[in-house]
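REVIEWER CHECKLIST
Item 1: Sequence provided? yes
Item 2: Single chain? yes
Item 3: Sequence as submitted:
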Amino acid sequence: MTEHAPEHVEEHLSEFSTDGHVQFRENRGLWQLTPDGRIVHAEHLAADLEGLDLTSALSSTYATFIDLNTRFKELCGAWQLRDGEPNDHSDPAYDRDVVEQLSEMHSEAKPVVGEMGEAIERLGPYSRRLDIVLGRVQQGETKMFTGVMCGSYHDAWMELHEDLILTQGIDRSAEGSF
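Item 4: Structure as written out by the authors:
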């Protein structure tokens, strides 16, 4: 999910592909940066952050995000498994409880994600994306909680997390935030 029109995104991906910065992975149905694309991305990221004090912009909100991330991972586990078995979503009361916990976590995350978006404009759309997909989860679209590559809450959350890691130059394995 993006804030841009699909034709706009396709146009840019086509240009990036022509320039050798991305490639389409047919078997997975996704675009991926090439090694040259990673270099160009790093250059664009540096330009985007030029003059910004990342410590004051993100350090306190990122620490809170990491705490929320731990809770989110636990909620994902509760959504996917019940009593150690795959959750088949046949118990509406159980699912409602987990969705309510997600809604509570989302309420705590909203000001944090919003503050990040105010500090770095590029991060702004994540708040709206998370709001939209939470609504879909609350309406009963079970795959929109933890579904992969479908615009789920998990997808949007993990994209934000990856964006924050890249923005701050954090080593994911050293941080331990998988």
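Item 5: Key structural point noted by reviewer: The radius of gyration is 18 Å.
Item 6: Recommendation: ____
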